[in-house]
Amino acid sequence: MANLGLLDGIDRTRLRGFSKTMFGNADRIEVAAAVARCQSGMVNGQELHELLGISPPRVRAQLLALASAGLVEQLPRMGQRLNYGIVDRDDPFWTLISEVAEVWGSQSDPD
Fold first, then answer.
1. What percent of the chain has pLDDT over 90?
2. What is the CA radius of gyration of the chain?
3. Neighbours of 40 (CB within 10 A)
4. What average pLDDT does this structure show over 36-56?
5. Can you tell me the distance from the alpha carbon of 44 to that of 32, in angstroms, rounded to the nearest whole number?
6. Which sign does the torsion angle of CA 3, 46, 37, 32 carry?
7. Which domains, and CATH codes, for the chain?
């Protein structure tokens, strides 16, 4: 899973505001960016909850939205945790969402 430094330098309150305005959900960009930056390409809701401080039901909702869009897929359970894997690491969405998180979460206004 990703590390806690994943969101260093990002104003998460600002990012959540942009996410709410653009996607109708304050958590969408933050969760997607965390998935994008996960080196293994496999995440689960509990780890994302711990990393981001977003409640498990809200994280799950974002994982389900990403799955519905075909960006992640549900993997077989490992113990009690339900894992999701990135379907195509080369999909431009993952680069885009990571860059969006950096720009929109920066202290300066996005260009």
1. 65
2. 13
3. 10
4. 92
5. 12
6. negative
7. 4-104 (1.10.10.10)
Alpha-carbon distances of 44 from 40, 81, 85, 102, rounded to whole Å: 12, 7, 9, 22
Residue pointed to by tokens 């897929």: 73
CA 27, 18, 51, 98 torsion-angle sign: positive
- The number of angstroms, rounded, from the C-alpha of 82 to the middle of its chain's C-alpha atoms is 16
The separation between CA 20 and the C-alpha centre of its own chain, rounded to angstroms, equals 14
| Alpha carbons 58 and 55: distance in angstroms, whole number | 5
CA 21 vs CA 1, 29, 71: distances in Å: 28, 11, 22
DSSP string, 41-110: SEEEHHHHHHHH---HHHHHHHHHHHHHTTSEEEPPPBTTBPEEEES-TT-HHHHHHHHHHHHHTSSSPP
Kindly state the average pLDDT of the residues 1-7.
49
Edge-to-edge order in the sheet of strand 72-74 = 42-44, 83-86, 72-74
